[in-house]
Design a protein that fits this description.
heterodimer; A: 316 residues; mainly beta; 9-stranded mixed sheet; 19 strands; B: 6-stranded mixed sheet; 4-stranded antiparallel sheet; 10 strands; 24% strand; globular
Chain lengths: 316, 246
């Protein structure tokens, strides 16, 4: 495991376009993990939270454990990047959040110079009974669109637990994104999956979010917001399965096209296997809502300015 | 300030407005009274220049300039704005940002977002950071809309039923906003069913069957509205002798 402050500073600075505060990523007070290509540059836990990292030929493996009952007020900073134009980074991670624990993660992934970069994330997440985990991930892929991102996560939320995640890629080009999250919820567990992507040029975006409501009273929300401009193609597959009584699930998808050559599709899938479960969905695909645009234009914004305000707000 | 000359609008083979003649003076509060379906909101859309509301005949003049063919935002930059009866919602846009957009892109109003909210009876500490989205009730959203009109400091504010769905106790706030706009020198074209709100107007017009029947003293127009329009026998087709252009 390498320690290199110069590399770490470079990596942290590369996270700024993804919205990260480089100083926070380096601050000794915060727990965190920083991986540049396949070099672990920082791996720091705090009382009650342990991070174990291991470098591999193509990336890193990490196991993050939060002890039962531990309530962490400060977020854990995760930072992954490939700074050269080419490379592959494969992150295999496991999160174990103990019973009654509470923790939040802020993850930044940056590939600012990418022309041919593959970034693969495979995560297994277990949120214990009554525990809470929030995971906010923001990407920056540079202007070239030369990144292929394949985030795959399996999330298990035990009784009364809560898992809430956001995946955000709104600056720079997206490249190829294939997001695939599956969440399984026990009794009274709650899960919210939220993905926001701004696709440009020839970007190709597929977002697949699946929530299995296995326990009575489990609640899930799969929410996606995509803006497709130029020749971007996007596809959203939101699936919720109600397997238990009083389970409640909702799929909420909006895709906005801002160019004549952009394409979008949405496939909401609801399956109810218990007569007392209830699932709903709403999907809207098309141009920016005319009334929103005209409302802003009636305040003096040009049409282009109004579209920008609506799109930026939706992806915030 | 605003002159409509012979405005007509048809859609899908149906006449919605015809031969509308209306004159709104500088700094005047002018109310439009009319039953549901008479074309009040359509008239608002025509003046603002919304898509689908392009007149099939007639011209619109604002301060002597023919604005009939101008897009919405150019009319707004000349000082015209509209508060919708059912305003749009915006994900991720805070009330503070929404009001600031109106202030910066409109007429550079001198009231801060917080002051605008206070004027419409919404405590700024509770509302500035909230999103202008579905979490606001209909009444709250309409009040935020009025606040954004105030923030813009327009020369002509078209208010489409600003009192609709508002708590009766908050009607005073609406009246206060209209008076503030007038004090700022703005003309207000006020579309309302609420007589206590309409009563603050300097003049009023009665709209029936897509045309202006009468223009004059608000009390007289309100009386006419009560006696003839609430149970309209015209089915939106007034008799020719009752059409008196303002």
């Amino acid at each position: 495991m390498a320690e290199s402050s110069v590399e770490l500073v470079e990596l942290s600075q590369a996270m700024a376009p993804a919205g990260a505060d480089p100083a926070a990523l380096l601050h000794a007070r915060f727990a965190g993990l920083a991986v540049s290509h396949n070099r672990i540059l920082r791996c720091r836990g705090v009382d009650g939270l342990r991070i174990e990292g291991e470098e591999t030929p193509t990336g890193a493996k990490a196991r993050i454990t939060v002890e039962p009952g531990v309530q962490l007020d400060s977020p854990v900073h995760l930072c992954f990047g490939v700074l050269p134009k080419e490379g592959i980074q494969e992150i295999i991670s496991e999160f174990v959040i103990g019973e009654g624990a509470r923790v939040s993660f802020i993850a930044h992934c940056s590939f600012p110079n990418a022309e041919r970069v593959r970034h693969l994330m495979q995560a297994r997440i277990r949120v214990g009974k009554g525990a809470q985990m929030e995971y906010a991930e923001t990407h920056y892929h540079g202007p070239q669109g030369g990144v292929e991102v394949l985030p795959v996560a399996h999330i298990a939320v035990e009784e009364g637990g809560l898992y809430r995640s956001t995946f955000k890629l709104v600056e720079g080009a997206a490249g190829v994104v294939r997001l695939d999250y599956v969440a399984e919820l026990d009794k009274d567990a709650v899960c919210e999956l939220d993905a926001k992507v701004y696709g440009k040029a020839h970007d190709s975006i597929v977002v697949k979010e699946t929530i299995l409501l296995n326990g009575a009273g489990a609640r899930g929300l799969a929410k996606t917001r995509i803006v497709a401009s130029e020749r971007c193609v996007s596809e959203v597959i939101g699936e919720v399965v109600g397997n238990a009584p009083f389970a409640r699930g909702h799929v909420d998808c909006i895709e906005i096209l801002t160019g004549p050559d952009a394409r979008a599709s949405a496939v909401p899938k609801l399956q109810v296997n218990d007569q007392n479960a209830k699932l709903t969905h709403e999907a809207a695909i098309g141009s920016v809502d005319k009334k929103q645009i005209e409302t802003l234009m009636a305040r003096g914004l040009s049409e282009a300015e109004a579209v920008d305000v609506v799109v930026r707000g939706m992806l915030r | 300030m605003l002159k409509l000359e012979g405005i007509a609008l048809s859609a899908g083979g149906k006449t919605i407005l015809h031969d509308v003649n209306l004159h709104v003076r500088e700094a005047e509060i002018h109310s439009i009274l009319g039953a549901n379906g008479t074309g009040k909101s359509t008239l608002a859309g025509v003046i603002m220049g919304l898509s689908g509301y392009k007149p099939t005949a007639g011209r619109i003049f604002f301060r002597g300039e023919d604005i009939t063919d101008l897009p919405v935002w150019e009319r707004a930059r000349r000082g015209i704005t509209l508060a919708w009866q059912e305003p749009a919602r915006f994900e991720g846009l805070t009330v503070a940002e929404y009001l600031d957009l109106a202030r910066r892109h409109g007429g550079n109003g001198d009231l801060s977002p917080a002051e605008c909210l206070r004027k419409v009876g919404l405590p700024p500490e509770k509302y500035l950071r909230r999103a202008v989205d579905a979490t606001l009730s209909g009444g709250e959203r309409r009040r935020v809309e009025l606040a954004s009109v105030l923030a813009m400091r327009p020369k002509l504010a078209i208010l489409d039923e600003p009192d609709s769905g508002i708590d009766p106790l908050a009607i005073e706030n609406i009246v206060d906003v209209i008076r503030t706009l007038a004090r700022q020198g703005a003309a207000v074209l006020l579309i309302t069913h609420h007589e206590s709100v309409a009563a603050i107007a300097d003049r009023a017009s009665s709209l029936c069957g897509g045309t202006i029947l009468k223009t004059g003293d608000p009390a007289a127009i309100a009386r006419f509205y009560r006696n003839h329009c609430l149970e309209c026998l015209h089915v939106n087709e007034p008799k020719a002798e009752e059409v008196v252009s303002g």
